[in-house]
Amino acid sequence: MREVASRTQVEVPPHDSRDMAVIRARGAENVVVGQEIVRHRFASRVIHWSVAVSLLLSLFTGLPIWTPIFGWMGTLFGGLYVCRWLHPWLGLLFAASSLVMFVYWLKEMRLEPRERDWLGPKLIQYLKYQGEDSEVGKYNGGQKLFFFAASLAALVLLASGIVLWVNPADVSQELREVSWVLHDATFILFTVAIVGHIYLGTAAEPGTFGAMTRGTVSKKWARLHHPRWYREVTGEDSRRP
Ligand code: HEM
């Protein structure tokens, strides 16, 4: 669907290239516009932000239900009673947008055999900014694993959430208890992962956030973080000049 196949280069003066790239990013992806590369087309960004917003709203309406420590958050939505009603619907919205994101990105997120070590030492090296890898494509192994972890978390939250939503008389006490544990453990682990994701997408790697807002990144950013993708899209050598 969105293969890095066609090597489309558009020649424009440097001062115009950012604006031109943003316009191009409405419908195209993996194209070079001057010194910019379109990384996420408009549709990808809408899907990503639907997942992000629905997750954050689910979290902020769920926390006051979880513990009175976060009771103050409930007042932002009109009180605990409103949160209890709203939270499952926001959760459904999150699950639905996660499903769309899963289908949309699945092809690009398939782990290559050489990326399996991201489950262990490679992830540690990456977090320590060690071990340059010139074979990193559009997404690195860590991003792909995060994608699958987020999809799995959405599934577990949905399944356990439905059990907790229905009339308690319709499900066994054991199933409700298992669902509480699963729902709580998943949202806690997921929240930690999301904090890491937000950090990596903003402060830790300057230039990344624009990929999800404007849709574009600089050529320099692509050469540094995703050298193979840079070579595929630009046809240029990714070694530093
Ligand atoms: C609310 C704050 C968030 C920010 C600032 C943020 C930022 C970003 C950015 C900048 C990218 C592009 C990375 C790249 O192109 O290399 C991205 C990708 C992605 N985001 Fe988010 N995101 C947020 C929330 C979320 C949430 C809540 C989820 C999922 C539940 C999520 C799932 C993903 C996935 C699966 C990708 C693609 C793989 C990756 O880059 O890790 N994001 N995000």
Structure report:
This protein has 241 residues and is mainly α. The protein has 2 domains: 7-41 and 215-241, no CATH class; 48-131 and 140-213, Up-down Bundle (Fumarate Reductase Cytochrome B subunit). The protein is built from 10 helices and 4 strands. The protein has helices at 14-24, 42-66, 71-75, 80-105, 121-127, 141-165, 173-201, 209-213, 219-225, 227-234, and strands spanning 9-10, 31-33, 36-38, 216-218. A 4-stranded mixed β-sheet has the order 1-2-3-4. α1 links the parallel β1 and β2 (31-33). α2 (42-66) runs antiparallel to α4 and α9 (219-225) packs across α10. 24% of the residues are buried. The model is unreliable at 1-6 (pLDDT under 50). It binds protoporphyrin IX containing FE. The site of protoporphyrin IX containing FE has 20 residues, from α2, α6, α7 and α8.
